[in-house]
Amino acid sequence: MRKTLLFIFIVAGIGSGQAQQMLGLTGSNYSGTHGIFLNPASIANSRNGFYLDLLTGQGGGANNYLKLPLGVTNISSFELDKNNLDKRDNARPKFALTGGQISALSFMVKMSPVHSFAFTNRVRFGLSANNVSNQLANIIAEGTDNADGIAGNTYRNIAFNMNVNAYKETGLTYARVVEVNKTHTLKAGLTINRLHGITAAYFNTKAANFSISEKPDPQQPTEDQTLANIENIDLSYGYIDPKAYESATENPSLGSFFGKGLPGRGWGMNLGATYEKLEDTAGEKLMDSLKTMYSADKNSGKRMKNNYKYRLGVALMDVGSIRYSGDFVKSYDISRTNKTIVADSLDGDADDIAGVLNNALDVTPGETSNALKTGLATALHVNLDYHIKGRLYVNAVWVQNLRGKNALGMRRASLLAITPRLEMRWFEFALPVAIAHNYSRVVVGAYMKLGVFHVGSDNVAGALGLGKTYGTDAYAGVSIPVFARNKQAKAKAVKSEGVPTR
């Protein structure tokens, strides 16, 4: 059991993440469908007339407890040699986040200078251990059989929250120009996501009080001598049996591409708005462009150019939940007082943590439920993009997690980032610098787009294994853009589309 929990922190430091934002890519004016994940209003009057994301994968993770050394690539060595793990031993609650996403065959279409539409399709997965008390983190790392610093101690108000989630997300986004005049534009966007849950698991305790002691019996193995004497504990935990999704994942079909056969169902929503302060000479040109619709005339003008001095966006992301129910769903709500557990009874198959706990805590059928609901990683996104000169920009992003510390479901790591970038249609380069991992670490990333390929990391040192690190991140993909043009329109004024021009 202890090795399983330690594995959470180790994987979060080097593994695959929901914790990262693809900062170089999502802030670009040519980000296409990827910009929707920062703010759904980003595609309104987009610089792309059409954008197809063929395939993009992203993964990363972070923790604020175990510092990982250079050159260690075998996870088993972390478990066997604690000297390889530098602990950050302080009073601050510990966390570990790891996960990622895979998007494929997503596209956006600019229907007119006012209206844009997008279809997004991705699988998201993540694991988070949150609000872990420092005392509990030390127990996980050291083990209950370590007499030095563990046995003989009493632990008060021990907290722990862990969530594992994987789901399929299919989204429809509509974005439009709401208002335009000679000084600014205002855009808005809405995404509705249909969610199909693949799997979920959780473990939560708000406050537990117990002590670790040893029986003075040298004839018994060490772990049989180590006892957890529980004064009081309130636990809730649950999981989805793998049999619930085996058929859909082992035998994929067109239906499973849209979530058929998966055990969870739910809805999600993203809502955003963007304000653009126009360059001094850009207002009239933009007005001329927006006062006409696309006509049937095939003649085109020059490709569109960015015309703002700065762009400010605010979005509420990932509002929603997924509900699981049925015989394959097991959830438990347990309260125990004055109970003694032999540490050896907590050893067992890492794939059956619930079974180990049920056995150790003597769980009865009446304490079992066949339904659970997990929330999405709700967060506030604020984005400011400033046009320095020519093709040079600097982007600022603030991501604030809005999920409670004991909430059931995924969560996003809060961060504040500054990203200077060189932006062109077929080439981009950016260097994000962020106070990441819930504002606990400074990380430096890099992003490059070359033609239809893009690759990047929000934490280059971690991705390349340079020095000691608390996390890592990387993403890459292939997309096909078709750049928008200013049409030489000969049609109706934009007032027919309901855009006030003042």
Question: What does this protein structure show overall?
Answer:
There is one protein chain. The chain is mainly β. The protein is built from ten helices and 24 strands. It has a 14-stranded antiparallel β-barrel with strand order 1-4-5-6-7-9-11-15-16-17-18-21-22-23. A two-stranded antiparallel sheet has the order 2-3. Helix 1 (2-14) crosses helix 4. It is elongated.
By secondary-structure content and strand pairing, the structural class works out as mainly beta
- List unreliable stretches of 5+ residues: 12-19, 70-80, 292-301, 488-502
**Mean pLDDT across every amino acid position:** 79
Q: Calculate the terminal CA-CA distance, rounded to whole Å.
A: 66 Å
Percentage of helical residues?
Answer: 10-25%
The radius of gyration over CA amounts to 26 Å
Biggest sheet features: 14 strands, antiparallel, barrel
Strand content: over 45%
Shape summary = elongated
β-strand number:
24
The number of helices is 10
Which strand order do you get reading across the main beta sheet? 1-4-5-6-7-9-11-15-16-17-18-21-22-23
Features:
502 residues, mainly beta, 14-stranded antiparallel barrel, two-stranded antiparallel ribbon, 10 helices, 51% strand, elongated
